[in-house]
Design goal:
Number of strands: 5
Oligomer: single chain
Distance between the termini: 28 Å
Strand order of the largest sheet: 1-2-3
Number of helices: 5
Number of domains: 1
Strand content: 15-25%
Radius of gyration: 14 Å
């Protein structure tokens, strides 16, 4: 099997609970590689820009809106506008989902 086939998008859906709200999010499970994980661990020491970049690499869609009815585009610029605590919770939820944590509810998220 070639590397491109192995790394083909493997999209999973999660519910991220934050501050009394639930955000539905789809992420690319194949995007989480040891290299990306090393960047996350380094981010613990160097700051939040790496976490924002990692989340931008993982997240494919979500139900966040800039204002009522206007979707917030997924990408690094959006991640930079979100609270660090939310990014950490989203990353934790994604990690638990990848590890098969049965306590997480999964809901289909439209792309």
């Amino acid at each position: 099997m070639d590397l491109k086939t192995l790394l083909a998008k493997d999209v999973s859906d999660v519910k991220v609970e934050y501050n009394g709200h639930v955000v539905l999010m789809s992420y690319d499970a194949a995007a989480l590689t040891p290299e990306l994980e090393a960047q996350v661990r380094a981010a613990d020491d160097s700051g939040t820009e790496e976490v924002a970049a990692m989340m931008a690499a993982l997240v494919r869609s979500w139900d966040l809106e800039e204002s009522e009815g206007v979707p917030l585009p997924v990408g690094i610029e959006a991640m930079r506008k979100l609270p660090v605590k939310f990014l950490a919770e989203a990353l934790s939820t994604i990690t638990k989902d990848l590890m098969g944590d049965p306590s997480l509810g999964v809901t289909s998220v439209a792309s």
